[in-house]
Amino acid sequence: MDHAAEAHRTDLMTITRYVLNEQSKHPESRGDFTILLNHIVLGCKFVCSAVNKAGLAKLIGLAGETNVQGEEQKKLDVLSNEVFIKALVSSGRTCILVSEEDEEATFVEPSKRGRYCVVFDPLDGSSNIDCGVSIGTIFGIYMIKEGGEPKLEDVLQPGKNMLAAGYCMYGSSCTLVLSTGSGVNGFTLDPSLGEFILTHPDIKIPKKGKKYSVNEGNAKNWDGPTAKYVEKCKFPKDGSPAKSLRYIGSMVADVHRTLLYGGIFLYPADKKSPNGKLRVLYEVFPMSFLMEEAGGQAFTGKQRALDLVPKQIHERSPIFLGSYDDVEEIKALYAAEEQ
Ligand code: AFP
């Protein structure tokens, strides 16, 4: 019997233990972040359970409302949003919450206020719910600027100011990927324990990938650099093999695959949507943060994605993210076009 392997398997690194370990590296830390994260984890577990039971519980179907983006809300969107808002407020560690589902930011009442601002999409990819495709929650965490009342400017900060970002994917397994600014780690929910266990330590994205991920149905409206890049993926002229296309249409699932296998995920601007589709605060920033922490890059077509300063909470931006070398290629095509 391989005792070392056995010991390894029984020494379970839960997400709470991991964050407490991280916390102990900062003696000044008061444990607020650990408490906040525990509440996010609770929200993820609840949504995971609701997604798994959706068919059975007859939760699938329209809730009869339209959200701020003009999209139909599914019951699970509504439920997930409520769960996260309540979990985050009750943590006593948040002051401003921005959710994809709510037109306005939520300012937490003074008696329950803490120093963190959380931006999140409670259930991204919800148009995929009915067919059982992986969907997820995306979140980013800022700290309120020192002093005074919380203001909207506290969340209208560039993505590079985030303290942490992550997503939880509700798929064949429930996987939470997190970065607190020193690398990226993946935790898988063990349903029998009800705990997220570290299963993907120190994730590094391959420097170059073999897959590209984009909605090709929008190709007729793409700009020059995007069209050239995708053409290069399919018909490389340097003798390298063509890339394979993978597109789920659920950002968490497409980014998760890109992070683990390498390659590039694109949601570019096009003639119909000059700012792209994806939202800066709770889609573009958290995923860009994770990509950079894993050794990849994220680019908007004009600049490093994390340098963008949003003016509105539901702002959108084009995004190209993934393996370092693949993003470098699209950056070169945009630079060439500018000249
Ligand atoms: P839904 O939440 O409406 O399913 O949108 C998902 C999403 O915001 C993101 O998760 C996908 O990457 C992207 O939209 C897919 O958009 P297209 O359907 O236009 O390709």
Write up what this structure looks like.
By secondary structure, the protein is of the alpha+beta class. The chain is 32% helix and 22% strand. It has eight helices and 15 strands. It has helices at 3-10, 15-24, 32-53, 75-90, 224-234, 251-261, 280-293, 324-338; strands spanning 62-66, 72-74, 94-99, 106-107, 116-124, 135-143, 164-170, 174-179, 185-190, 195-200, 211-213, 244-245, 264-267, 297-299, 319-322. The chain has an eight-stranded mixed β-sheet, sandwiched between helices. A five-stranded mixed β-sheet has the order 12-11-13-15-14, with helices on both faces. A two-stranded antiparallel ribbon has the order 1-2. α2 (15-24) runs antiparallel to α3 (32-53), α3 (32-53) runs antiparallel to α4 (75-90) and α5 (224-234) packs across α8 (324-338). The structure holds 1,6-di-O-phosphono-alpha-D-fructofuranose. 1,6-di-O-phosphono-alpha-D-fructofuranose (AFP) binds at residues 71, 124-128, 215, 249-251, 254, 277-278. 1,6-di-O-phosphono-alpha-D-fructofuranose binds next to α6.
Which features would summarize this protein structure in a list?
alpha+beta, binds 1,6-di-O-phosphono-alpha-D-fructofuranose, 8-stranded mixed beta sheet, single chain, 339 residues, 5-stranded mixed beta sheet
